Amino acid sequence: MYRTEDHYSIEFSGDINNFDELYRNSSESNDFDYEFPLDKVKELLDGDAIFHSTYNVYKKFLFVLYKIIGAYKIGITFGP
């Protein structure tokens, strides 16, 4: 399977309570925990991160992230 490197950067404000638990439950039930593992998502919350082969599930991820942290501004560059 071909693997891409996708660069994500984020800006948001506010405090996040119980992020690990909320994210873990949502990512597993929405079946994107492989593409967006918790440790990499926490790295993203610090500013930016590289994920692999996310094109098929990124919309679900963005929606769940919004439900957990609220409004944010994100930049995504999908790798070739």
Helical segment count: 3
- Roughly how much helix do the residues carry, as a percent range? 25-40%
Q: What is the SS-derived class? A: alpha+beta
Q: What kind of sheet is the major sheet?
A: 3 strands, antiparallel
Mean pLDDT: 93
What would you note in describing this structure?
The structure is a single chain. The longest helix has 12 residues, at 58-69. Strands 2-1-3 form a three-stranded antiparallel β-sheet, with helices on one face. By secondary structure, it is of the alpha+beta class. It contains three helices and three strands; from the N terminus they run βααβαβ.
What's the structural blueprint in terms of helices and strands?
Layout: E1 5-12, H1 19-29, H2 38-45, E2 48-52, H3 58-69, E3 72-77
Antiparallel strand pairs: 1-2, 1-3
Short key terms for the protein model shown above:
three-stranded antiparallel beta sheet; single chain; 3 helices; 80 residues; globular; alpha+beta
Summarize the structure.
This protein has 80 residues and is an alpha+beta fold.
